[in-house]
Amino acid sequence: MTASFADGTPAATRRGRAHHLATLPEPAVLRRLLTDAADAAGVHPELPGLPDGVEAVRRGGLLFVLNHTAAPVHLPLSGPHRNLLTARDTAALHLAPHGAAVLRPM
Prior knowledge:
The structure is a single chain. This protein is mainly beta. Helix content is 14%, strand content 42%. The chain has one helix at 27-41; strands at residues 12-15, 18-21, 54-59, 62-67, 73-83, 88-95, 100-105. Strands 3-4-7-5-6 form a 5-stranded antiparallel sheet, with no helix packed on it. A two-stranded antiparallel ribbon has the order 1-2.
């Protein structure tokens, strides 16, 4: 391994609310660093505990849920929602493989 000017210096630092990452760590370490930074900033997932490959994004008053996997998923919701793609009310979401939903809280 070749010596570098950065040898012996921290790869991740924090000052107040600012974080600096000077490397790309292993996925588990990166996940922990990002989770800690999000927690400190008060940022929380729209749907906690989503399985890998399932994404939930809020845009205005709507919640978009995308299943990027080849398997169906079942997700409980925090309360009743209207699925605008099916025009049905639901308190739990069933997404087909590569399925999507657009939800509006009721």
